[in-house]
Amino acid sequence: MNDSIAVSSMLGNWRDAALSLEESVGQVVAGQSRAIRLMTIAIFARGHVLLAGDVGVGKTTLLRAVARAIGGAYERVEGTVDMMPGDLLYHTYIADDGRPRVEPSSILGKAGELSTFFFNEINRARPQVHSLLLRLMAERSVTAFNRTYDFPYVQVYADRNRVEKEETFELPAAARDRFFMEIPIEAPADAEVRRQLIFDPRYHDTDSLLTAIDKPILDYQTLVAAATTIQKAIHTSDSVQRYVVRLWEATVRPGKMGIALPAIDMDRLVQGGASPRGFAFLVRAARVRAWLEGRDMLVPEDVRDVFLATVAHRVFLDPVYELRREQIVLELCESVLKTVPAP
């Protein structure tokens, strides 16, 4: 009984902190409440995130604000076509004596306290770099200088360049599947928010804007334990479990589940549906969403709310449809949610 009360108290304290984080970040990044909520879910589910959006919509500002609210170390790298894995691991320079030196990179130097790692324009980097990133994401460790560096608290965030196609390398299926979510960040639709972003000088100086978050709201070192506790505390009924399995079937074999899209061969459309890991991530995100809503029971709306963010980037289409991927996958996911009856 005492243990149950203690867990309930911890969950309440973490929820208060999570809502405080959302409020603080919302004061820095205007018009992005949906993206902030999804970021909060990813933080408390301990998942890596792809950020999707056009240039200049506030992706970096949002991430920097979240990093300040979490605490721990923050590191950012820029993807380039000539980048190699060693660039993430080694720092080379000419010392005062004129001789070359090779030392651990700043990323390795912060390994034990690194909480937020941002890889900007990840699709500009070569597949060799993606492979190294896969290990960091999957195992939270890398090997260099004949030793293993552990990153127990790191979350990887990556942004893809969606404009230029020259000198870019699309993420392979294995890398995309490792990302817990793909969070869309679009320009705010509200006219008043747009006016503020354009004319209010407060939003023109990002460094000054970020000082509004003057100290961490969360303790990044406790997030792993918080995530485990949340997953154990949120219960799932048999009917909701069956519902999630039907959603999986509809995503993998939409034609057989009666889903039809205009001018699309549904039997050919999906080359690879979301993996078991992908739908486990869906449930993990849905549990955090239920907890943020103040419930200890998963309901279908929790699953539906995070379905697109956790599943869409894991659906791999036949090449003939890939150029229209964003539109088709969105329509497919919406059709799956409309077709599969919720309990």
Describe the structure.
There is one protein chain. The chain is of the alpha/beta class. The protein has 2 domains: 34-195, P-loop containing nucleotide triphosphate hydrolases (Rossmann fold); 234-339, Helicase, Ruva Protein, domain 3 (Orthogonal Bundle). Helices cover 50% and strands 14% of the residues. The protein contains 16 helices and 11 strands. It has helices at 2-28, 33-45, 59-70, 86-89, 106-109, 127-139, 173-178, 191-199, 206-210, 223-233, 238-252, 266-269, 276-292, 300-311, 319-322, 325-339; strands spanning 49-52, 73-78, 90-94, 100-104, 114-120, 141-144, 147-150, 155-159, 181-184, 270-272, 316-317. A 5-stranded parallel sheet has the order 2-5-8-1-9. The mean pLDDT is 90.
